[in-house]
Amino acid sequence: MNLKALRERRAKLIADARAVLDKADGETRGLSPEEVVSQTAMLADARQVALTIRNAEEIELEERGLIPESQREERGKKPGDPTAAEHATAYSAALRSYIRNGFGGMAPEETQALRSGYVRFEGEERAQSTVSGATGGFAIAPDTSMYGKVIEALKFFGGMRSAGCTVLSTTTGADLPITTDDDTSNTGVIVGEEGSNAGATSVALGQRVLHAYLYSSKIVKVSWQLLADSSFDIESYLGRKLGMRLGRIQNTHFTTGTGNAQPQGWVPIAAVGRQSNVGNTLSVPFDDVIKLIHSVDVAYRGPACRFMMHDLTAQAYELLKDGDGQYLWKPAVADGGPDRLKGYAIVINNDVAQMAASAVHTGFGDFSNYYIREVQGIQLVRLNELYAENGQVGFMAFMRADGGLIDAGQHPIKTLQNSAT
């Protein structure tokens, strides 16, 4: 079943579930036990189809890999330099050879492709380096195919990297200060024709510093047979495995991280926009949704503004109606588009707490104010000897990153929290 058919099936399941409620509302009665069972099954099927859609979209991006060579521009190319297409082809072949055979089994021209001091690609120069030693490590530059595959896996895990966060790529791991100011309390004045304008109010500046924490994927073991099998796409396999491992821990930290020896997540630092008086229930009052939206200053309620919640919390939102009996949750219409709530995009992030007493279960606001900092590329290390007795080779990926909510004082992201009782 293709993606279009899957989305149509999901929309129909949700519409059928709503029809059950509409029928009961029209007859001014509650749901019968049979209707409750039927509606629960429909919503469960809809969530399963949504998961299938997300997996299918991830597979499509994995298969696409790099931008087609025919679409690449060759800017700043000097006479005699390889074209972008020629470079990409040679580099990908050399990387594949390194993964399968290590440096010892590579042809001289392949080794040169990996060990070259700089990579020229689309008019840019990016430094590369090689990690020497018995482990046979190699630092992959940010424009290589393996890096692209790993980043795709990171984007599709969790929600933070698909929420419109600002991503900064730096060449060093030195502390990165982000300057903020909150001048919203100051206004201008009317000055008389010959009046004095001596008064002045300074702008108070703040600062948020992003660090560079070292993340490891831990070791992924690959058998010699798989490495030797030319039909096996080892790059996609490693990109997916390493990326998912790095993605899991980073998404958790970007969501709920303490900021102590790890990134600061948005949940612990975002201001509470509305505390819902529902305690330990699985319902969301419509009034609280409206109040949460308006707790965020209108200056932040632009196209980048969205909701973020756990998948199970989304179930409660899907059944919400406004005062006119219209459902608030609107399934995606365009292929690849997000579902929407009151016109705002919805991001599913299962690192956000589920609905419970005192739980902060929903975020709303402009997530472009959450900054993700990455340092250079991803370092891939091949362990030739460690698992040799088992006929395996080990691979590890390292990545330096940090994240934090840049709040100048007016709280671009607000949360909805259940009451304690």
Largest sheet: 7 strands, mixed
Strand line-up of the largest beta sheet: 9-17-14-10-13-12-11
> In the CATH hierarchy, what is the architecture of the largest domain at level 2?
Alpha-Beta Complex
Listing every helix as H and every strand as E from the N terminus to the C terminus, the arrangement reads HHHHEEEHEEEEEHHHEHEHEEEEEEE
Low-pLDDT stretches: 64-76, 117-143
Specify Rg, calculated over alpha carbons. 26 Å
CATH fold naming of the largest domain: phage-related protein like fold
Query: What gross morphology would you assign?
Result: globular
Protein architecture, described:
This protein is of the alpha+beta class. The chain has two domains: 1-64; 84-180 and 205-421, Alpha-Beta Complex (phage-related protein like fold). It is built from ten helices and 17 strands. It has helices at 3-26, 33-64, 84-101, 108-115, 145-155, 224-228, 234-256, 266-269, 286-295, 311-318, and strands at 118-121, 124-127, 137-140, 166-170, 176-181, 205-210, 213-216, 220-223, 271-276, 305-309, 329-330, 340-341, 344-348, 360-366, 370-383, 392-405, 413-418. It has a seven-stranded mixed sheet. Strands 3, 4, 7, 8, 15 and 16 form a six-stranded mixed sheet that branches. Helix 1 packs antiparallel against helix 2, helix 3 packs across helix 4 (108-115) and helix 5 (145-155) crosses helix 7. The longest helix has 32 residues, at 33-64. The two termini are 45 Å apart.
List key phrases describing it.
421 residues, 10 helices, 7-stranded mixed β-sheet, phage-related protein like fold, globular, 6-stranded mixed β-sheet, alpha+beta, 2 domains
